[in-house]
Amino acid sequence: MAVSRFTDNGGVRLHFLDSGGDDRGAPIVFVPGMTCVAEDYAEVLPAFGRRTVVVEIRGHGRSGVPADGYDGPTLSSDVGAVVDAVTSGPVHLVTFSRGTAYAIGWALRHPTRVRSLAIGDYIPEERLLPPGAPRRLLDGRWRGTPVRDRVDYDAAIKTFERARARSFWNELARLRLPLLVVRSGERVLVTDEQWSRYRREFPDATLIEFSDSPHDIFRPDRRRFVQLVRDHVDHADGRPS
Fold first, then answer.
1. Which of 34, 53, 115, 126 is geometrically suited to a Cys-Cys bond with 90, CB 3.0 to 4.6 A?
2. Per-residue pLDDT averaged across 143-162, rounded?
3. Do the domain assignments include residue 114?
């Protein structure tokens, strides 16, 4: 059974969910989306097949809500604080939606510690939302519960306000990491043009579309993405699943 653990980043208490067990030489560190909390994934953690942790950056779930530190580089350092709490060695990074930007931000500063990367329905960029979109998102629901119950409202607004448009495409391509990318059938957050760019810049990547999934690629099958990640990280380790 997964357990809640905490670590510290510059005085900010960060929560993460930890499956425990054998990390097989490199645990999975999963950085989910803006409206996710770690508990969303408790049921599927065993299916990853090795020790897996789910990060809650500041302002999310059970993590602290400081007055500042909501810029991209600081949120990336939250990811790094959890990584360091779990291991001093390499990890397999898994991301979903907006968590992708913060995970990649950390990876680009610590490339020798990243054994593979799997991205769920996003592109390697920090993106800006159009005016009005953040509040509409935060006033809505995600996976059946109000978003305001998942993320601190003021912290989320600060996160969107501190965001800066940043591209990681070229830097990430230079790392030549084993890469898995899954996009949803909505083709909104990963357009056909961006999908083609993935093919050009990452010719060895595994690119898969879940044509029956909305942006929440854990629907309708909660374990489909997890199984792909499991096979991906095992292959990156040079061992069978």
1. 115
2. 98
3. yes
